[in-house]
Task: structure prediction
Amino acid sequence: MIKKMNKNKSTNQIQREQHQLDASGRIAGRLASEAAILLMGKHKVNYQPNIDAGDFVEIANVDKMKFSGNKMEQKVYYHVTGYIGGVRETPLKKFFQEKPDELFIKMIKNMLPKNKLRKEMLKRLTFKK
Result:
């Protein structure tokens, strides 16, 4: 006799917490890696890479974070349009002054796993003005 076990969905629900991080005066890369770990759920005891069990992360004062070394003068972000000669360069200094939120999202996006869960993880990242 085969008995089917019905899994109760209410017991298998993921409990997500709300984390608030203040970016003022902190190094950008270290803050981004901390946020990426929280979004993935690696700080939890029951972490599994194939399950999205991460928490909500809210970042405040993104425009006041710092960069170590000479990154502000030397680092360049590239974008390819798809046309011949369509490589666009944006220095970090200009990118940070115009769109610090998008820069931080780009940093975290590169730290998250490159699979179908990344999009859902990024949805839980918010910014406080």
User: Anything to note?
Assistant: The mean pLDDT is 92. Strands lie at 18-22, 56-60, 76-80, 87-91, 125-128. The two ends are 60 Å apart (CA to CA). Residues 18-67+101-128 form a domain with the Ribosomal Protein L13p; Chain: A; fold (CATH 3.90.1180.10).
